[in-house]
Amino acid sequence: MNARRAVSLLVSATATAAALWAYGFQPHGSHPVAAFVPIQDGKTIDFSDGSPAVRDSAADRAALDAAVKEIDAASKDVSFPADPPPKK
Questions:
Q1: Are the CB atoms for 32 and 50 separated by under 8 Å?
Q2: Could you tell me the end-to-end alpha-carbon distance of the chain, in angstroms, rounded to an integer?
Q3: Which of 17, 18, 47, 19 is nearest to 34 (CA)?
Q4: How many C-beta atoms lie closer than 10 Å to residue 53's C-beta?
Q5: Amino acid 69: pLDDT
Q6: Residue 78, by phi and psi: left (phi above 0), alpha (psi -120 to 50) or beta?
Q7: What are the structural domain ranges in the chain?
Q8: C-alpha to C-alpha distance for 77 and 87, rounded to whole angstroms
Q9: Which bin fits 33, alpha (ψ -120 to 50), beta or left (φ > 0)?
Q10: Is the pLDDT of residue 71 over 90?
Q11: 3-state secondary structure 27-87
Q12: The pTM is what?
């Protein structure tokens, strides 16, 4: 085996070992597992305390209504033209 090939093999083996070591020794449990919360129409999901909680307050409904009105106003003049028919 020539020296250049041996050095390439050594460098790639070292990089692979470093990547596997970094992957194997990362802290477990540092990222909380997201709990499944079904989406409910007209309600919000609050993650402020670290876990999901479905909220349905008057302030949340007012914020949702205002956001829907803002989205509707911003998109009322948006249109996408149809593609021209393919030529034969």
A1: yes
A2: 61
A3: 47
A4: 13
A5: 96
A6: beta
A7: 3-25+33-75
A8: 30
A9: beta
A10: yes
A11: CCCCCCCCCCCCCCCCCEEECCCCCCEEECCHHHHHHHHHHHHHHHHHHCCCCCCCCCCCC
A12: 0.45
Residues 45, 52: contact at Cβ < 8 Å? yes
Question: pLDDT tens digit string along 6-36?
Answer: 999 999 999 999 999 988 887 766 555 556 8
* Tokens, residue 51: 């876990």
Q: Are the beta carbons of 52 and 37 closer than 8 angstroms?
A: yes
Joined tokens for residue 79: 């249109």
Structure-token pair, residue 37: 């919360």
Amino acid identity for residue 87 in this structure? K
